[in-house]
Amino acid sequence: MGVSTSSPEKGPEDTRGPDDDAIAVVTVDFPPVNALPVRGWFALADAVRTAGRDPRVRCVVLAAEGRGFNAGVDIKEIQAEGPGALAGANRGCFEAFAAVYECEVPVVAAVQGFCLGGGIGLVGNADVIVASEDATFGLPELDRGALGAATHLSRLVPQHLMRALYYTSRTATAAELHAHGSVWRVVPRDELRDAAMELAREIAAKDGELLRLAKAAINGIDPVDVRRSYRFEQGFTYEASTVGVADRVRDRFGKEGG
After folding, report:
1. Buried-most residue among 16, 43, 152, 234 (CB within 10 A)?
2. Strand 23-29 versus strand 185-187 pairing type
3. CB-based contact 237:87 (threshold 8 Å)
4. 174 near 130, Cβ under 8 Å?
5. Nearest 5°: phi and psi at 47?
6. How far is Cα 18 from Cα 22, in angstroms, rounded to an integer?
């Protein structure tokens, strides 16, 4: 359980080649639904940044174990620990999303099942998304007493659809995002990891130094500063908490009729 990093292309020590470490897979595993506690967000940020700084790595695959890719923050932790946990979750999410965006090499997100809340922040900042046929994407923030990640949902769907999804807390399917051009490929669930690795190998076959320059150049021409934009959104999450509306909504979370 937790966050782990592996090099699946690495063979036996006596047969290793120069490209065996070219792909790093960062895997999240927080049962039962990958709702990350504060420490989980910071651990994920550290793992992605470490992988990106490794000069041998040319592509990072962001994956998850279990039923779904990510269910956002651990609401129960916030309910139990109060404002300190909320502040920690906000900082942790900011660091994790920024780590994916700022990773020195391209990041391929392999998404299965549900991708909600903080999951949208991760995949919205990834370079490419490969998804399983059962993958769904959404921001149920208004149902959970929070705000945020509209910045990242805006990178996945057109503006008016983003607003409709945000206000209703509805989800979009992988097929729908593929139609909008934000998901590269949709595959059966049992083929997801292979499909993500296939794309990662194609990317990692390029010159490593040139890939890093390309990533920096593409980030540099983004029309929206995703870090500042998301931080602006987080201010309203704090405001909702300060005036009590967040607690009112959050206290209904998981209860009948809530």
Report:
1. 152
2. unpaired
3. no
4. no
5. -65, -45
6. 8
Q: What is the CA radius of gyration of the chain?
A: 18
By the 8 A CB rule, do 49 and 103 touch?
yes
Q: Are 230 and 94 within 8 A, CB to CB?
A: yes
**123 burial class (0-12, 13-18, 19+ CB within 10 angstroms)?**
buried
Q: What is the pLDDT of residues 37-90, one digit of tens each?
A: 999 999 999 999 999 999 999 999 999 999 999 999 998 887 888 778 888 999
Assess contact for 74 and 112: CB atoms under 8 A.
Answer: no
- The predicted model scores a pTM of 0.93
Between CA 111 and CA 136 the distance in angstroms is 9
Count of CA atoms in the C-beta half-sphere (13 A) of 21:
10
In our burial notation (b when 16+ CB lie closer than 10 A, e otherwise), range 132-156 reads bebbbbbbbbeebbbbbbbbbbbbb
pLDDT (tens digit per residue) in 118-169 = 999 999 999 999 999 999 999 999 998 889 999 999 999 999 999 999 999 9
